[in-house]
UniProtKB/TrEMBL annotation, chain A:
It is found in: Cytoplasm. GO terms for biological process: autophagosome assembly; autophagy of mitochondrion; ER overload response; protein modification by small protein conjugation; protein transport. GO terms for molecular function: Atg12 conjugating enzyme activity. It comes from the Eukaryota. Belongs to the ATG10 family. Keywords: Autophagy, Cytoplasm, Protein transport, Transferase, Transport, Ubl conjugation pathway. This is Ubiquitin-like-conjugating enzyme ATG10. InterPro entries: Atg3/Atg10. E2-like enzyme involved in autophagy. Acts as an E2-like enzyme that catalyzes the conjugation of ATG12 to ATG5. ATG12 conjugation to ATG5 is required for autophagy. Likely serves as an ATG5-recognition molecule. Not involved in ATG12 conjugation to ATG3. Plays a role in adenovirus-mediated cell lysis. Gene3D superfamilies: 3.30.1460.50. GO terms for cellular component: cytosol. The gene is ATG10.
UniProtKB/TrEMBL annotation, chain B:
Residues 11-104 form the Autophagy protein ATG5 UblA domain. Signal peptide: none annotated. It is found in: Preautophagosomal structure membrane. GO terms for molecular function: Atg8-family ligase activity. It is a peripheral membrane protein. Belongs to the ATG5 family. Gene3D superfamilies: 3.10.20.620, Autophagy protein Apg5, helix rich domain (1.10.246.190), Phosphatidylinositol 3-kinase Catalytic Subunit, Chain A, domain 1 (3.10.20.90). This is Autophagy protein 5. Pfam families: ATG5_HBR, ATG5_UblA, ATG5_UblB. Keywords: Autophagy, Isopeptide bond, Membrane, Ubl conjugation. Residues 184-228 form the Autophagy protein ATG5 UblB domain. InterPro entries: Atg5, ATG5_HBR, Atg5_HR, ATG5_UblA, Atg5_UblA_dom_sf, ATG5_UblB.
Amino acid sequence: MEENEFFGEKTFQHYCAEFIKHSQKIGDGWEWRASKDCSDGYMCKTHFQVKNGTAVSHQGTSAHVQTFLPVEEALDPPLDDLEVTETTTAAEVIKYEYHVLYSCSYQVPVLYFRASFLDGRPLALKDIWEGVHECYKMRLLQGPWDTITQQEHPILGQPFFVLHPCKTSEFMTPVLKNSQKINRNVNYITSWLSMVGPAVGLNLPLSYATAASQDEGNVGGQGKKRSLCSTFPVAKILEPLLHLAMSPLLAPAFIKSAFISDRLDTDLFV
Amino acid sequence: MTDDKDVLRDVWFGRIPTCFTLYQDEITEREAEPYYLLLPRVSYLTLVTDKVKKHFQKVMRQEDISEIWFEYEGTPLKWHYPIGLLFDLLASSSALPWNITVHFKSFPEKDLLHCPSKDVIEAHFMSCVKEADALKHKSQVINEMQKKDHKQLWMGLQNDRFDQFWAINRKLMEYPAEENGFRYIPFRIYQTTTERPFIQKLFRPVSTDGQLHTLGDLLKEVCPSAVAPEVPMPEVCSWLPTWLLASSAEGSHLPSLWRDWEEDGPRLSQQGAENRRNQSPGTETLFWDQVVASDTENVLCLNSRDHPQIHRMVGLLHQEKSA
């Protein structure tokens, strides 16, 4: 179909492929799924998180979910270990699926996700909201229906939660402009996901940033940057701060402003 | 486009005679009578079924009632699809009325979006309008509107006010004189035969050599399996004739009756069935539940209120009826 000059579907697929290559290197679990007719597809990842804090209501109605604590990604024990060594029951482990699709209407990527307990009971929108990171909460509380809503997955046809895409190009444009200015390769998907993911519990290890900014064939530079990633424990400690800086041209203040209502216009619909 | 007022009105006022029956396993204090209602094609189930809900809740206890949902022949009905679309996809080849089953428990989480309030429907509707404008005008027209205009669009739909709605919608349907049309046509093609809920792609209204694209061009480009000439098209719904016939009060064999649908539903259903039985072979009479193809071009389930080709089809059918 029509290729857009700014961020067309082919470009999207290219960045996803690069992103997945790196994910495979570090075992981060992202993969590409083609639609049945193979005309398009999406990137997806499943991971499990332990709910921290208050008890699950035994009727299985909406559980109170604290702010997400990612299970240590590289230190993920296999799931049966988790059940043996901790007293958490199956009901407190939540399975998250994240899907990255392309919107041809807005010509940007869109993050779809859903969450369920291990027994298949889905999490309600209310639980999703409660688990949203603090710095995004203000915007959400003003217009909850407009930022994360339940929608039909355009390829699978099933209910998913979605982060609305209409503001994406607004906050991504400066990233891309700046990267062009200083002649630096930026993987659009990496930058975008590093900004929107944390709002819903999806964090990217630091190594994506260094992988994204490597020029192809810059072997000398690669060696130097890899050593940063290899000091793993250090990276882990700094991770919550560093993933925000992963789009290094973005000041944390900009990220904050993209998601807090005083910056955006009052029209809260997508 | 907007000088085709008659066609716009016909699209807006399209109705589907429906019979709502409570699911047999719901717990009731006494027998629940079916409820008859004329559903607007352009609206959404959860927006127009307050009366249905109240009717059935009268015979149920509060503790047996949770979120309402609807089903047709075992398929949960997606409230976020326009009613006309649901009917065309699932029931247009069956006899009217459309028989829908009402549920108050066991909400099918894997199939249906939740609809806890009217706000959710409004957000969904506005989201669709905005996405369409992103395609038509790069969102310029919708973003330049004030909040009260957005509200007016929604209220027009909610309260079935054609003039109120179109006062705002006409701005979304305009394009600059120097262009030949919108930037891209906002369309979705729904089929029951695919896992994918719909096909949506970028498609320009004008070809590179300046020719206006037709519906046929669109289909050939994005859904070629629907246009193979030698193959019958079960998934192509001839919704146009069905709703036209159901919505008009003019044709002699037609519902001036529909106005009384809500009272006379059972009697009219029987009458329709009788009319069909009595039809003599070879007549050109159009019955409201028959499929009519008046053109070699395919008519499809376009979720679009205003495509030029639809207007042409409407014109042809009007001619046939008065002949």
